[in-house]
Amino acid sequence: MPIAFDPHHPDSAAAIAQAQREIARIDALSVHHDVSHGDLRVRWRRFGDAAAPPLVLLHGGHGSWMHWLRNIEALSAQHAVWLPDLPGFNESDTPPPPRDGQGMLDPALDIFVGTLDQVIGAGTQIDLGGFSFGGLFAAQVAARRDGVRRLALLGSGGHDTMRPMEVEMINWRSAKDRDEESAALLHNLGALMLHDPASMDALAFEIHDVSCHGTRFRSKDVSMAGGLREALDVYGGDTLLVWGEHDATADPGPTIEHVISGHEMRRGKVIDHAGHWVQYESAATINSLLSAYFA
């Protein structure tokens, strides 16, 4: 099946321009908040009524707030949807390296929770979601911050199981020119993020391209180190775990069983025909699922 976007096609520039207009349209619906913890700044976006129940959604590795672009309008109908660029990503500052005795994620968590409490209020009850690396990050936030009512993790990292990737990734940073770089980014989009080639459209490519170039934090090491179940054990609250049927980072059935076994507050869901970036590829299904879960 041919892909929906080809960066070398004569019409690719027009398709990218349309994707950029769509991103700008969604961004224009938000209120930006630049919030500092110490001397490090996090860029937050709020969508929807500020007085509505807060829903915080965290993006994945090599990502940004745009990982949720196809979900914002549906979820902000009933919630104040708060989307940060996590520390070290896109428009937020880079966290310092961990000090002696700290874990790899601790500096970023300190900055994130510090700015979260400023924009929403310390102790304010929230619903929390995370995708991929952001799923593990969200679980760690829930483990250390009171007031997380419900937690939804999509394609979460840190699950301590493996699904061998069928296609090798390409190091786009070593490309000799923009054409080679674009080809590598598109290849990786299909190898890791999306299952159906028809989902690999100009909007997906633009989000992936911009977000990859804005990444300064090595999330893969954190996700591969595990820790998801331990964080959920500390949290102990209502948790929904979602994987796409064809997620390249996990075998969904065994992974869900591994994470939820013995815990009545955890439930799992596999989304048919979807890959890792499930909230983009199966946006309508995920919007309905999360709207009901967080209702």
In a nutshell, what does this entry contain?
38% of the residues lie in helices and 17% in strands. By secondary structure, the chain is of the alpha/beta class. The chain has a single domain, classed as Rossmann fold (3-Layer(aba) Sandwich).
Q: Can you put this structure into words, describing what you see?
A:
The longest helix is centred in the first third of the chain and has 16 residues, at 12-27. The chain has one domain: Alpha/Beta hydrolase fold, catalytic domain (Rossmann fold, 3-Layer(aba) Sandwich). The model has no long low-confidence stretch (mean pLDDT 95). The chain has an eight-stranded mixed beta sheet with strand order 1-2-4-3-5-6-7-8, sandwiched between helices. The chain has helices at 12-27, 72-75, 106-120, 133-144, 178-193, 202-213, 219-224, 228-235, 252-260, 278-281, 283-293; strands spanning 31-37, 40-47, 54-58, 80-84, 126-131, 148-154, 238-244, 266-271. α1 crosses α6 (202-213), α4 runs parallel beside α8 (228-235) and α5 packs across α6. The chain is built from eleven helices and eight strands. The chain is of the alpha/beta class and 295 residues long.
Helix content: 25-40%
- Envelope shape: globular
CATH architecture annotation name: 3-Layer(aba) Sandwich
Structural class: alpha/beta
Low-confidence stretches: none
Element string (H = helix, E = strand): HEEEHEHEHEHHHHEHEHH
How are the elements arranged and paired?
Elements: H1 12-27, E1 31-37, E2 40-47, E3 54-58, H2 72-75, E4 80-84, H3 106-120, E5 126-131, H4 133-144, E6 148-154, H5 178-193, H6 202-213, H7 219-224, H8 228-235, E7 238-244, H9 252-260, E8 266-271, H10 278-281, H11 283-293
Parallel strand pairs: 3-4, 3-5, 5-6, 6-7, 7-8
Antiparallel strand pairs: 1-2, 2-4
